[in-house]
Amino acid sequence: MTNTTTNVSRVADIVAKTLHAHGVRHAFGVPGGEVVTLIDGLEKAEISFNLARHESSAAIMAAGASAISGRPELLVTTVGPGLANAVNGIADALQERVPLIVVSGIVDRGTRARYTHQVIDHTQLLRPIVKASFEIEPESAASTVARALTIATTEPMGPVHLDLSPMVAALASPNSKVITPPTQFGTSVSVTDPGVRHLAERIRAAERPIILAGLEAARNNAGAALQHLAETIGAPVITTYKAKGLLSEDHPMSLGGAGLSPLADKVMLSLVNKSDLVLMIGYDPIEMRLGWLDFVEDRSNLVDIGKTAPDHAMHHAGTRVTGDPKAIVQALNGSVIEKQTWINAEPRVAKDELGQIFATRTAWGPHAIVDRLNDTAGTDGLVTADSGAHRILLSQKWVATKPFSLLQSAGFCTMNAALPLAIGAKVADPSRRVFAVMGDGGLEMGIGELATLRDLNLSVTIVLFQDRSLALIALKQASAGLAPAGVTLGETDFAAVARGFGGYGVNVENSDEFSRELEAAGKRGGFSLIACRFDANAYDGAF
């Protein structure tokens, strides 16, 4: 093995330095013998390695860190079973548009053809769920890593996989050059641009415009420009769940997020179908459901604005304007004048109706829990949500005033996402208060990550919706006229489990207790778990 006390750079060092040069600061994973040299190189390059308890969770931790840092982040796995364990988390990164770099150990080339222990074809395994896959070689290590980063961060963003054998990682690098990212300049968009002129003309003619905004617009920091446009032309704004808060949801023009709640979608789709111009700004329909496949009768009313070419057939826009969403909207703001639209005030009626649908109905239960949590988190707190009935209700009731203040798996909708997302987010920004909102089924699926919270000494507050059921599936069984099967969960004492993992745990059954525990958790070091107990029938008719 190369002597690490010398100044000779190993291939692992070049890999790590290139990752660092491109903004990577956090790595997550479970080590194995094949990646020990890489981990040593990461630490020397000031990329922190954070030990997870499962590789899939580690991938989602990297996604949470990336959402907060705005940069690509790193998953490290060992050979064979380590990478196979990570498949769900990598697939989540693909559908959640996360610029995830995956580096896996691989058996050394000299024995690969004859050795079978733990050997699988990594590239074939990951082919459907990564944008590209390469093996790092000594002579081209920096270039290969830089290429992977470019691919991962090009819209639509997504994971890229790199194999690195232990022998190559430990070799003295034949090339000490580190590839740094280029200085980038975007092309300007002006009011004279043909696409902008066309959009301005369409807006001037529209009597009922509406904006449907998505993740690309949020990543593009288009919120202020979008708000100005919405106010100028009187266009209500609907977002995907990933873009919640792009326009502060306490703004009168905001109708909140859409895509999962049939009750909410009924209201919003009705309004969209009254519109004569739908501006889809940085919108990715991967989060939406069947009701949004062909959501307008006249496709000529649909205008798609964004950098990414559609890779779907979930709608067919009549017009597409390709470019930077923020720049296009800013140019539009210089082209349109204030106008009165929606003279029958249909958007205000829709907003009022949505408020009534999701109004809190009882003193205790899922609605009240969301209310108290929203009050405590305020405008600066960050909330992550797991898949399940609680997520649908939370995503509709939650008032997001900033983008990326509510993180979730919205395209892939995997369970056991909230806790690793919260861990990654807290690692990326230790100063921010972070809440992980989970159901009991999701927490039991990934309960080992409580140990990760303990070992990293992260002060995350876990809010557990404990209804002793896979409530969303039970509701779907009931709507299909089927008897419940395989959806009942036993009574786990999660407060005791949390204490067993070195955290604070408590059970609550009313709103006042919950509020007191939320306040106390914010002053406490380490993690806190607040198990909110209620009956699953509290979700009946909720969304």
TrEMBL record:
<keyword id="KW-0786">Thiamine pyrophosphate</keyword>
<dbReference type="InterPro" id="IPR012001">
    <property type="entry name" value="Thiamin_PyroP_enz_TPP-bd_dom"/>
</dbReference>
<protein>
    <submittedName>
        <fullName>Acetolactate synthase-1/2/3 large subunit</fullName>
        <ecNumber>2.2.1.6</ecNumber>
    </submittedName>
</protein>
<dbReference type="Pfam" id="PF02776">
    <property type="entry name" value="TPP_enzyme_N"/>
</dbReference>
<dbReference type="InterPro" id="IPR000399">
    <property type="entry name" value="TPP-bd_CS"/>
</dbReference>
<dbReference type="InterPro" id="IPR012000">
    <property type="entry name" value="Thiamin_PyroP_enz_cen_dom"/>
</dbReference>
<dbReference type="Pfam" id="PF02775">
    <property type="entry name" value="TPP_enzyme_C"/>
</dbReference>
<dbReference type="InterPro" id="IPR029061">
    <property type="entry name" value="THDP-binding"/>
</dbReference>
<dbReference type="GO" id="GO:0003984">
    <property type="term" value="F:acetolactate synthase activity"/>
</dbReference>
<dbReference type="InterPro" id="IPR029035">
    <property type="entry name" value="DHS-like_NAD/FAD-binding_dom"/>
</dbReference>
<dbReference type="InterPro" id="IPR045229">
    <property type="entry name" value="TPP_enz"/>
</dbReference>
<feature type="domain" description="Thiamine pyrophosphate enzyme N-terminal TPP-binding">
    <location>
        <begin position="10"/>
        <end position="124"/>
    </location>
</feature>
<dbReference type="InterPro" id="IPR011766">
    <property type="entry name" value="TPP_enzyme_TPP-bd"/>
</dbReference>
<feature type="domain" description="Thiamine pyrophosphate enzyme TPP-binding">
    <location>
        <begin position="386"/>
        <end position="531"/>
    </location>
</feature>
<dbReference type="Pfam" id="PF00205">
    <property type="entry name" value="TPP_enzyme_M"/>
</dbReference>
<comment type="similarity">
    <text>Belongs to the TPP enzyme family.</text>
</comment>
<keyword id="KW-0808">Transferase</keyword>
<feature type="domain" description="Thiamine pyrophosphate enzyme central">
    <location>
        <begin position="196"/>
        <end position="332"/>
    </location>
</feature>
